[in-house]
Amino acid sequence: MSGMPTAFTHRLAVRFRDCDMLGHVNNAVYFTYLEQARLAWWRHLGSGTGFPGANTVIVHASFDYRAPAFLNDELDIRVTLAGIGRTSVTLTYEVVNAATGQTLGEARTVNVTVDGSGTKTIPVPDHTRALLNGAGNPA
């Protein structure tokens, strides 16, 4: 993934509550890290809680773990736009130890655009598509 253009990087520090009995970040917490990075990217693009101009729900999320993170590690969560379909936006992520540069994991989410009720799939709005493509990423 490191050869792909990075749309956005969000840095965060591992908190005590993120760790399990073995002292490393619990596997489920990584999905919260992805969410934090996604929300920070959306704010950077000018939106509050979702893709600018569109409501979305995640219909797929996967994470491939490579190495553990520990308390007080600083992590860079790199968010990349992998593609835009008719009703979906696919993002890929790389979680990197900021101090060592080691990749700790790679992830993917598929976000589907929905109407205001959150129950009906709608096409990705043209202005949202244009804004996302303006970040220098593939359509």
Chain-wise SSE layout:
Layout lengths: L7 E6 L15 H17 L9 E11 L8 E11 L3 E10 L5 E12 L11 H8 L6
Antiparallel strand pairs: 1-3, 2-5, 3-4, 4-5
How would you portray this structure in words?
With 139 residues, the chain is of the alpha+beta class. It has one domain (8-133): Hotdog Thioesterase (Thiol Ester Dehydrase, Chain A, Roll). Helix content is 18%, strand content 36%. It is built from two helices and five strands; from the N terminus they run βαββββα. The protein has a five-stranded antiparallel sheet, covered by helices on one side. β4 (88-97) and β5 form a beta hairpin. The protein is elongated, with a radius of gyration of 15 Å. The mean pLDDT is 89.
Largest pleated sheet: 5 strands, antiparallel
Terminal-residue CA separation? 17 Å
Radius of gyration: 15 Å
**What is the succession of H and E elements?**
EHEEEEH
CATH superfamily: Hotdog Thioesterase
Integer tally of domains: 1
CATH topology: Thiol Ester Dehydrase, Chain A
- Could you report the average pLDDT, rounded to the nearest whole number? 89
CATH structural architecture: Roll
Question: Any key phrases for this structure?
Answer:
139 residues, alpha+beta, Thiol Ester Dehydrase, Chain A, 5-stranded antiparallel β-sheet, 5 strands, 18% helix
Task: Give the gist of this structure.
With 139 residues, the chain is α+β, with helices and mostly antiparallel strands. The protein has a single domain (8-133), classed as Thiol Ester Dehydrase, Chain A (Roll).
